Amino acid sequence: MVDHGSLLSWFPYIFLPFFTFLLFFCKKSSSSSISRLPKSYPLIGSSFALLANSERYNQWVAEVLNFCPTNTYVIRNLGASIVTTAYPENVKHILKCHFSNYPKGGVMRNILSDFLGNGIFNADGDSWKFQRKISSHEFNTTSLRKFIEEIVKIEIFRRLIPILSMTAEKNSELDLLQRFALDNICKISFGYDPSYLSISLEKKEFSVAFEDATRIMSERIGHIIHLVWTLKRFLDIGSEKRLKQATATIRESARNIVRQKKHELKEKSSLETSDLLSRFVKDDDLDEDFVIDIVISFILAGQDTISAALAWFFWLVSCNPRVEYEILKEINQTSEEPSYDDVKDMVYIHASLCESMRLYPPVPLDSKEAASDDILPDGTVIKNGMRVSFSIYAMGRMEHMWGSDCNEFKPERWLEKENVTGKLSFMGKDPYTYPIFQAGPRICLGKEMAFLQMKMVAVEVLRRFHVVPTANKNNYAPVYVSYLASKMKGDFPVKIEKRTT
Fold this sequence. Notes:
Layout: H1 4-9, H2 17-29, H3 47-52, H4 57-67, E1 72-77, E2 80-85, H5 88-97, H6 106-116, H7 125-136, H8 141-166, E3 171-172, H9 175-190, H10 205-222, H11 227-235, H12 238-267, H13 276-281, H14 288-318, H15 321-331, H16 340-344, H17 347-359, E4 365-369, E5 374-375, E6 381-382, E7 387-391, H18 392-395, H19 399-402, E8 415-417, E9 424-426, H20 447-464, E10 465-469, E11 480-482, E12 486-488, E13 494-498
Parallel strand pairs: 2-7
Antiparallel strand pairs: 1-2, 3-13, 4-7, 5-6, 8-9, 10-13, 11-12
């Protein structure tokens, strides 16, 4: 169903072809580096600067916010104003103190609804509260212990390690991590094993469709003139046609998962409700499409963010032999098959993962929409309906928050050594300074599960293999880009080498 009201709301931009031409001309002629705040012009705002930096948006925002006294800037674009901040007190205000005034909002829901529907990451109000309440049951200590001791270990020892052993001395695909993460989230949340991580490494239609959908959704968010993608959706052409096809593939797969779970519960009425999907499916009042929205949201959260975080972690470790040495020293102090408690207590690896995500956050930016007028703690005036974003990427690169070495990979900044015993202790940061997992009422339910999964992968892979970027000799540095989650532009070219010592 086409939202004609949305189309009409963008109708004035049809009269801006001249400005659109200027924007494209500016993109070709502008330098991507800046030393001052972007210029803002009547009607079109900072569209020149936005388009010139469209392929490095997160880096550009970090540069702009670093230049501002309170790390907050109002970006104006074609009559709209978006407040972007990296100021912790502002973030706390948005995510906690005035949480009810900053929902996802209509703009983002419209952009993401074709893919995420009314799933938890695109929901507000009662729908969000309902999904959050049911989901919270799945992330208790018992579930976490089961996750680490049963599901992750099986995936690592029976699939990931054998495949890495077979591909040692050969180029390895980055999507091993995506396949691993996808299997895990499906098993723990839905009791379903897609077996995407297999010896054949065959490309699956579902995973290709999922990657296409997340990319196109991100392109929607990045469009300076939203009329572009709205018209393409209306005409069913180009990327929007591909999105429609990809979404159909994804929803059909999700529908099969839901129906299979319903069949299992019907056949075995005494079947223990041991996964998230069972809890939703047992509620006869829930529409099947709504449950499918929930499945898609959790797959997005469990696949892309975990695989992105691990890719950047392995790259940073491979470039820092000192850190790798400290990680191996910690690994060698644990058993060959570490338990839940062993993994949970590995502080140096935990610090290394936190440091990696500080520099390369899996989700670099989050956006809300003001429900009423407000004033942020730094004095920024917010009007009803205004979009308010906080840049997680920029917050990880602020010198006044992290020190003059803020651009360095230094796990020790998260650790404290006891004077007497010399034992290292992990020192967490304020969640409003480090909102990698959000904060306040929307804080990520799967935070501990994510850390356990990443630490287990790090332990078992680094114990057995060197992960060597193939282009290191040419001072290769991957480019950070983001869809709905961050990616390495052009993949992560590596060789897997077995450790001999």
